[in-house]
Amino acid sequence: MVSLPQQAGLEENRAIMSQGEAAGRCAAKPQDQGWAWMVLLAAVVLQGLTLGFPCCIGVFFTDLQHEFQASYSETSWFPSIMVAVLHGGGPLCSILVKRFGCRFAVMLGGLLSGLGMVSSSFCKSISQLYLTAGLITGLGSCFSFQAGVTVLGYYFVRWRTLANAVASTGVSLGFTLWPLLSQYLLDEMGWRNTFLIFGGVLLNCCVCGAIMRPIQLASGSLPQSAKPKEQPGSRAEEAQLSNGASPHHPTLQQHTKRTKCFQMLQKYLAFDIFCQNKGYQIYTIGVTWMMMGFALPHVYLVPYATHNGVEERKAALLISIIGFINIFIRPFTGLLSGHRVFTGRRIYLFSLAVLLCGLSNFICVISAEFSVLILYCIILSIAMSGVGALTFQVLMDVVEMDRFSSALGLFTILESITLLIGLPLTGLLVDITSDFHYVFYNSSFFLISAALFMGLSFCALEKKNKLRDASKAHLDNPSRYQYSETSTEPKAESQSPPAVEYITSI
Predict the structure, then answer these.
(1) Which residues contact 205 (CB under 8 A, 6 or more apart)?
(2) Mean pLDDT of the chain, nearest integer
(3) What is the DSSP secondary structure assignment for residue 491, as one 8-state letter?
(4) Nearest-CA neighbor of 367 among 309, 321, 314?
(5) pLDDT above 50 (res 230)
(6) Which one, of 342, 351, 343, lies nearest residue 282 by Cα?
(7) Of the listed ranges 190-194, 342-346, 488-492, 497-501, the one predicted with least confidence
(8) Which residue, 240, 190, 233, 181, is CA-closest to 64?
């Protein structure tokens, strides 16, 4: 995703999509050499600090419950808000980066993250924690992460693929180290002092941002695409002006506002693609439904283990095991899925990985022994690696690349909604039943049903498209099918899709 930081990683692809445009406007001198590698190191640290951080929330779950006398449902709102804002804040971060630049956005995000955690250490109620650690820290992490990935497009051209792959390892490193550090500080100092220290640690995002110094625009380097284009609705405005309407006329002003609002929605939220593209529609609905149960094991695994007698240090180690295995398995999965054999079939690999995630949850139901939970973490991390490597690749397969950024905006906002409500609803179920097994039953239900829905729906859609294309081709040129089985003429070069490769991380 997939872990919580991997889920949050759905925002990274929005940032990566802007790298191509960014690189075209940069001076060539500092790219792929010198200071660029320091920027890459800062990006690795940045991803570990931001996307890796939510994975440690489960370590504090029980202590926060006792401190505020809160139910499982009330306590689970805290991590769900943090992760949902990390996802849903993507469009806002894009506007911020465009207006003030990547360096400012990264440092502002670090400041917000640190401020949120420092404020959390003084909270007197669980609802205050929703605002400080949930909203403020989540938004700050979103700003720092997305802007930090975007700046790599300025510094890397030839080695951009390698840079993105190396930067993504920070997620798994953070996922491995944060739980261990959290458990140690919690045992030594308590959760309030730990949150205070975390505020200082997250302020290091500002240091990473300071390293990411902007590259001056080269003279005349603006691409032709940067030239202003005629906006939709401009013809209507010109027609009204030519008929004598004043530009300050109330009706014309309202029309202009509506046009600009429509343009903004069209740019960042691709509702037209959702209505017209069946593949995007199926995939978005499937992933949105999947997220209802995707984050549950990562938040409730530590409380479940300690509730069944596992030592707290060992319980925190379970999350680190998942992150450690991801460091090695996810790059291999990404390379495997990029093979030509799987071209056009990655959605089925993705559905299989989601299905394996759902089935693996039944291991926890069988037994809560530490050795069994280790086996569960190994299988879950392998499945999560597949989901993490394929999420954006599948999205690129079903959406045209020139509309990918806006399609990703709607995609992340919809799944952030289910991330927000999934954890509290399951917590409410645990409060009612007093049985942790329902966490894993619930997760399995959403994951398995989402995997079957996506796999079967794409299979039916593929068959329907093949029949339609064959019927259309037969009607357009019936003599071809009467006298010739195959065409020996090569396809026009303009018909081949552009070769675009993206390395993403969730």
Answers:
(1) 46, 49, 50, 106, 107, 109, 110, 113, 114, 140, 144
(2) 78
(3) P
(4) 309
(5) no
(6) 351
(7) 497-501
(8) 190
pLDDT band at 225 (very low <50, low <70, confident <90, very high): very low
Query: Cβ(205)–Cβ(106) under 8 Å?
Result: yes
Burial 293-304 (b: 16+ CB within 10 A, else e): bbbbbbbbbbbb
Quick one: three-class SS letters along 89-132? Answer: CHHHHHHHHHHHCHHHHHHHHHHHHHHHHHHHCCCCCHHHHHHH
* 460, amino acid identity: A
The encoded tokens of residue 218 equal 């080269």
Average pLDDT over residues 117-133: 94
Residues 6+ apart with CB under 8 A from 380: 297, 322, 357, 360, 361
SS3 sequence, 324-353? Answer: HHHHHHHHHHHHHHCCHHHCCCHHHHHHHH
Cα dihedral angle (293, 298, 299, 305), rounded to 10 degrees?
120
Tokens 């779950």 label which residue? 61
Q: How far apart are CA 316 and CA 378, in angstroms?
A: 15
d(CA 395, CA 22): 22
Write the pLDDT tens digit of every residue in 448-480.
999 999 999 999 988 888 888 777 776 766 554
> Cα–Cα distance between 352 and 358 in angstroms, integer?
10
Q: How far apart are CA 399 and CA 17, in angstroms?
A: 13
- Min mean pLDDT across 23-37, 163-177, 228-242, 343-357 is at 228-242
In tens, the pLDDT along 283-320 reads 999 999 999 999 888 889 988 999 888 888 898 899 89
d(CA 197, CA 121): 9
Please give the average per-residue pLDDT across 124-134, as a whole number: 93
Span 21-41, mean pLDDT? 64
Percent above pLDDT 90 for the chain: 32
Contact 70, 126 (CB under 8 A): yes
Give the residue, 375 or 266, on which the prediction is more confident: 375
Q: Which own/partner contact pairs does 258-265 have at CB distance under 8 Å and 24+ positions apart?
A: 259/231, 259/232, 259/233, 262/232, 262/233, 263/231, 263/232, 263/233
The residue type of 400 is E
- Taking the C-alpha atoms of residue 150 and residue 195, their distance in angstroms, rounded to an integer, is 29
Whole-number Å distance between alpha carbons of 20 and 365: 46
Q: Give the SS3 label for residue 293.
A: helix
State pTM to two decimals.
Answer: 0.72
